[in-house]
Structure prediction request, 150 residues.
Amino acid sequence: MNALLVPYNRIVATFSSALAESIMLLFVRISLAGIFWRSGRTKVEEGSWLTVSDTAKFLFEEEYSGVPLPSEFAAYMATYSEHLFPILLVIGLFTRLSALALFGMTMVIQIFVYPEAWWSVHMIWVALAFVLIVRGGGKLSLDALLTKPK
Prediction:
């Protein structure tokens, strides 16, 4: 029985290393960022960087009308947030804060827009955000570089 545990323990040690964790956290950062970045890009005028589209404003007036904010303000805030926080996640700057912001957006979407989407989508987004809120950006992030002891 002990002979079987040696290879297993080596595998566990490899996947428990600081490098493996940092690679995993980078992957989680990119994954969560990609979800929100793609959503943010659907809210801007084609060919522009951050001009909120009339379609996005209409969606916030009609389909997302349950959000307890003025619809035009919500459209702008969602669009800007879905661009800013993913960029910060990818570079690993203010990772915990960015993940917390995207967690908050997810909960607003869950509660006020698509309450039926918990098991199919939002639970996964929350899990990704929680990993980053709890663990931070890892060693492959600007957070690690900026907080490195001197």
In short: The mean pLDDT is 96. The radius of gyration is 19 Å. The chain has seven helices and no strands.
